[in-house]
Amino acid sequence: MKVFYFSATGNCLAVAKNIGGEAISVPQAIHEEKSNYKDDAIGFVFPVFDGTYPRIMKELLDKKKFEADYYFAVATYGFFPGNSLYAFQKLASEHGIKLDYSAELLMVDNYLPLFDVEKEIAKLPSKKVEENLLRIASDIAARKHELTKNTMIKSIGAFFEKPMLKKTNSGQAARDFTVNNNCIKCGTCAKVCPAGNIDIQGRMAFDNRCYSCFACIHACPKTAIHIKGEKSDKRWRNPDVKLKELIDANKQEDR
Ligand SMILES: Cc1cc2nc3c(=O)[nH]c(=O)nc-3n(C[C@H](O)[C@H](O)[C@H](O)COP(=O)(O)O)c2cc1C
After folding, report:
1. How do the residues of the chain divide into helix, strand and coil, expressed in percent and rounded to 5?
2. 7 CB within 6 A, ligand 1
3. Structure pTM?
4. CB count in 10 Å sphere of residue 86
5. Confidence of residue 194 (pLDDT cuts 50, 70, 90)
6. Which of 12, 70, 219, 248 to pair with 23, CA 20 to 30 A apart?
7. Helix (H) / strand (E) containing 21
8. Distance, CA 219 to ligand 1 centroid (Å)?
9. Burial (Cβ within 10 Å: 0-12, 13-18, ≥19) of residue 62
């Protein structure tokens, strides 16, 4: 089994590791020469961005070919999943992939302009992450066939999130980021950036390839990077994931 994951703050990486099989980072895979992936089961794990899937997931499906007897997708989210899985199911089918199983998993919301990480952590017991993840992992192990239903509310919510999505997908989301004097130029932000969008030589600068995943903001050891309107300066990394794992998953430095 191969599990393709995209993760900024570790939630999706923790899920991919938990599901088992070979976890493959999407930001690495899209630049690999290898173009065909074959296995008995292939899965996709991604965070919900503005009620849908992140644009890097489309880049993956546009660039690579997959062959499996069983396909699944898991979307992690913090508050409202929108129609992310239905949209991804449609995208996959346009690429010749018929999903057999999909599931949403409620985790910590890392969207700083709307959520305070401290309060998100306090909500964790009610989100029952472990219990739900265990169920999803055993569904996949049993090759269960079940697709997440799309509802009117999900579609309406996703519709209203569309203006936000425009900015998220513009590549220019980092225009809302600021860097303060706490920055020690350690380069962690550049290393965790899946777009290779951050230059720390000279005055720190963001280019126009930002995926708006917030990996840089959350990973900065000095909390030097901020986004307009953020609720607090508390940052998040899933406790089951080390910083080095996120760097290995996302780094684009050698390109
Ligand atoms: C730009 C952006 C948009 C987001 N939009 C949503 C959303 O529409 N609904 C939601 O519930 N969570 C949203 N989130 C929260 C993430 O989906 C959630 O925290 C996810 O588990 C993060 O996974 P990761 O740690 O693997 O990056 C958003 C996060 C970001 C950075």
Report:
1. 40, 20, 45
2. yes
3. 0.97
4. 20
5. very high
6. 219
7. none
8. 15
9. exposed
Confidence of residue 203 (pLDDT cuts 50, 70, 90): confident
Contact by Cβ (8 Å): 214, 47: no
If you measure from the C-alpha of residue 238 to the centroid of ligand 1, how many angstroms do you get, rounded to a whole number?
Answer: 13
Read off the pLDDT band of 123 (50, 70, 90). Answer: very high
Cβ contact 107:221 at 8 Å: no
Tokens standing for 104? 């949403």
Predicted pLDDT of residue 254: 61
- Please provide the DSSP assignment of 170-182 as one string: TS-GGGGEEE-TT
In short, whether 49's Cβ falls inside 6 Å of ligand 1 is yes
**pLDDT > 70 in the chain, percent:** 99
The closest alpha carbon to 208, from 243, 177, 251, belongs to 177
Assigned token pair, 60: 């993956």
Phi, psi of 232 (to 5 degrees): -160, 175
Average pLDDT over the chain, rounded to an integer: 96
Kindly give the distance from the C-alpha atom of residue 49 to the centroid of ligand 1, in angstroms, as a whole number. Answer: 5
Instruction: Give the ligand 1 atom nearest the CA of 9.
Output: 25
In which element (H, E) is residue 36 found? strand 36-38
Tokens, residue 153: 């509310």
Helices (H), the chain: 11-19, 26-29, 55-63, 84-94, 117-127, 129-141, 152-168, 188-192, 215-219, 243-250
Cα dihedral 206, 3, 17, 127, rounded to 10, equals 80
